[in-house]
Amino acid sequence: MYLYTDSSELQDCPAAVDMETGDVYINRDVWDRYTEAEKKFILGHELGHYRLNTDDEKEADEYALHRNFGKVRKSLKSAFTALEKAGVNNEQRWGELYENALEIDADHGNERAAAELKKIKYKTKKTSTTMRNIPGQITYIQPDYPIMNNFCRADGDEGGDPGEPQTPPYTPTNDGMGFHRQGVQVGSVFLKVTDIILIAIGVILLVKLK
């Protein structure tokens, strides 16, 4: 069942699912920011949490991708734009979503997507054998704050009952190694590593995906 709530309960998150009942709470204050295709991804994501009985964002994203592919126009691209609008800032989640989208597109005959997927898997394998801890690298920890585990949110926050104030899910820490700003200065604009990755993914999607 779809139920409407507002930003006083979900902040900027577009939707959340009650893992006990399967009811999806839609944030009416932000819902119109999303296209129809983006809305279908968000609802599919929440449905994935409930039907798979998981709080894993990757599994819910993958469920939504498969559910919408071939049924929703530009469903793969819309998954990325939906997460961007929702304020998702998790490099691992973006990478996994991109790889899942390429796998789906490749399985349906897109040769360029298959080639890109092969390239990514090769780079990942090569990097995993040479990666080391980098001094000064920013790490992220989850702060202590109350969590109600029966709700899963579209933006990936581990938060609770709609209405419970949410603390930002990640807090930067130097982990005792010294804080270093990571990114590129372009004129008067500073682009974080995450910004660069999102821009690169967007450009590749325009070329690779149907």
Query: How large is the radius of gyration?
Result: 18 Å
Structural class by sheet pairing and helices: alpha+beta
Shape: globular
How many structural domains can be distinguished in the coordinates?
1
Report the count of strand segments. 8
Oligomerization state of this entry? single chain
Note the main sheet.
4 strands, mixed
- Proportion of residues in helical segments: 40-55%
CA-CA gap between termini: 32 Å
What is the typical, i.e. mean, pLDDT? 76
- Distinct helical segment count: 7
State the strand order across the main sheet. 1-3-2-5
Describe this structure in words.
The protein has 210 residues and is of the alpha+beta class. It has one domain. Helices cover 45% and strands 14% of the residues. The protein has seven helices and eight strands; from the N terminus they run E-H-E-E-H-H-H-H-H-E-E-E-E-E-H. The protein has a four-stranded mixed beta sheet. A hairpin with a 5-residue loop joins strand 2 and strand 3. It is globular, with a radius of gyration of 18 Å. About 21% of the residues have low confidence.
